[in-house]
């Protein structure tokens, strides 16, 4: 009898323990039904281990991505599982706080029924389309919302009154005006949309146009100054248009061509002047003297009465210094030239001879004033008396004062 009583108590205790454990592990049926519907909407994905189309115990069993608090589902995290399909109604998940379906291939529109107490929602990097449902406005606990890189359209006005700390709307097709309330969101991204800013740009406290794009794209911003819009500033746009203007490009090309021509002309003039200076230096260092005697027996008095004395032309921009070497006679080349005398035109056959500066200084008494006959068009003229009794008129030509054309004519 005693043994039978002990056995009875043992069975009762085991039954009570089993009932208690089952009641402790059983998931709220409303949550189970909601997850069954989501599993069906996601095409019964095999990646969702433990999930069922009907019934089951997400909190008691192991369901991929599900975490619970008591009998309520509080976390649903299934990112990067290559899930496809669409979202079912989620408004029955009353205690769901964290919803992460990011980086999958889920499409369609967001259902009207959303978890009413969710605080974190990440639907980024999927294929969602359509407008945001009005039910977003009732998610009064939502502080973090990530919708980037989808194909959402329409307005974001239903997000204006939410207590958001993080909001990412990048890479969609949202349009309309940007709610003024967005200025209070510390971490905000909305680059790459079609917001209307022409009619009324929001008078926010931080300048969107001056923030570098890299903050908006590569990493979450740390302050209000990191918010970006999907269009460049008007000043930057004008600068870009001006840079791409064909008319401005043509002006630049013509300007460059003119500068090149001017540089070429200046360079050519510089080379010409350098060559002229080089020739003058050579001429001045080798001051050559040519004489053209008229007659071996001519004297100064006769020359003065009948005709001007023949000229010895000296070209030197510097002081005349006697040559140390004996005079060098050129080859006895005879040339016939036509010269005009003051008495009339005569033909003379002349022998050219080279005189040294020392010989000319001796013949003109060092170009003294008493031998100065006058000033010619190219320089002063002096009377020269040589030991053989010949008289010549010596013209000293300053090559520096000659123009380039005059110098070339004289050398010829």
Automatic annotation (TrEMBL):
A cellular component term from Gene Ontology for this protein is: membrane
Signal peptide limits:
1-25
Keywords assigned by UniProt, alphabetized: Leucine-rich repeat, Membrane, Receptor, Repeat, Signal, Transmembrane, Transmembrane helix
Q: Which residues cross the membrane?
A: 249-271
Region Disordered: list its residue ranges: 212-235
Gene3D superfamilies for the chain: Phosphorylase Kinase, domain 1, Ribonuclease Inhibitor
Q: Which InterPro entries match?
A: Kinase-like_dom_sf, Leu-rich_rpt, Leu-rich_rpt_4, LRR_dom_sf, LRR_N_plant-typ, PRK1-6/SRF4-like, Prot_kinase_dom
Q: Where in the cell is it found?
A: Membrane
All copies of the Protein kinase domain together span: 367-412
Q: List the Gene Ontology MF annotations in alphabetical order.
A: ATP binding; protein kinase activity
Q: Which Pfam families match?
A: LRR_1, LRR_4, LRRNT_2
Looking up SUPFAM superfamilies in the UniProt record yields: L domain-like, Protein kinase-like (PK-like)
Grouped into one coarse class, the protein's main location is membrane
Q: PANTHER family in the record, alphabetically?
A: LEUCINE-RICH REPEAT RECEPTOR-LIKE PROTEIN KINASE PXC1, LOW QUALITY PROTEIN: PROTEIN STRUBBELIG-RECEPTOR FAMILY 2
Name the chain's protein: Protein kinase domain-containing protein
Q: Which organism is it from?
A: Gossypium lobatum
Lineage of origin: Eukaryota, Viridiplantae, Streptophyta, Embryophyta, Tracheophyta
